[in-house]
Amino acid sequence: MADPRFLQIHYLAPYTAALLNRDDAGLAKRLPYGGVLRTRISSQCLKRHWRLAEDPHALSRIDGADAAFRSRETVDRKVLAGLPDGIDEGVLKPIREAILTAVYGDKGTELKSRQTLLLGEVEIAYLTGEARRLIGEAGGDAKAAKTLATDWHRAHKANLKALSEGSKLPGGLTGALFGRMVTSDPKANIDAPVHVAHAFTVHAEEAESDYFIAADDLARDEDTGADTIQETELTSGLFYGYVVIDLPGLMANFGGDTALAGQVLHNLLYLIAEVSPGAKLGSTAPYSRASLLMVEAGDRQPRSLAEAFRDPCSANTAAAVSRLSSHLAALDTAYATGETRRVMSLANTDVPGAERGTLADLAVFVAELPASLVREPA
User: What is the pTM of this model?
Assistant: First the structure.
């Protein structure tokens, strides 16, 4: 195999009587595809659940995986919260405003005008240290604090990148995986090496409106006992999901740390296979695991296998795997891109060119990919 540039992850996951991802009306998200509506799970929903999962393979459990916080209030709740109590408000105010506008832009002092920005631990630590230094140099003098804050802001305005210069994970693990966009300072943007497609059902949507009540346990005999009457939507489906990881981009965001990159890929694969997105957990228990997980490593541009399901397929794992395999075989014949494949499947259908294994086998395979990009000196 040539040096792998891309890791592609394909999966099929079944869910029954669930409401995995809702739109603004509280209904299941949908996607028209192949002339029919499909039930959909947004990439934002998937990424959030993988990022925040409390799991033996949680990303937060990895040594060296710095945390990050996406918020409009990071300066107040994280940066300034690290300062001692009792600081004179006249001293603190100009320093706070300087930091807010340096981080969030010229209108950063107004909460509603701020971008919901991702900041990593190293950036928060830097800002806290700078705030502490400026307060110390002001010596309790509000006028001196204003002058110091003005000078600091002039040096840091539109230069958020400087806050984490030399850091391996400037935007924390979240930024290293899923990127960061900073409208006030494009130089602080982080390219996302993990690309996540919206998952969709391989068949037409299967949905119904579920009528339910909240019964009054202390209702009198003459009462109906129905204190609340409501409806919600429930859906069932077999979803196709697709993830691409730019391996050189991942390595660049991890500062060349192959061990950290490998551990992250190992855990992320487990999360993709085992962590379920879902609303209404208490009333639908939408917990499932992938019935197929296929990983591919290669040096050519990735390609989704969604086309296999443009014509709606039976909501059956074996049928879906067969459809996916046929489409994959046609692509192999036409393009001969030569990806190395591993597959875990609950169906007995063979997948072209794929070595079968367990989830653990696939996780070991992907964990070794970053090291393969590093060449020993001649």
Answer: 0.90
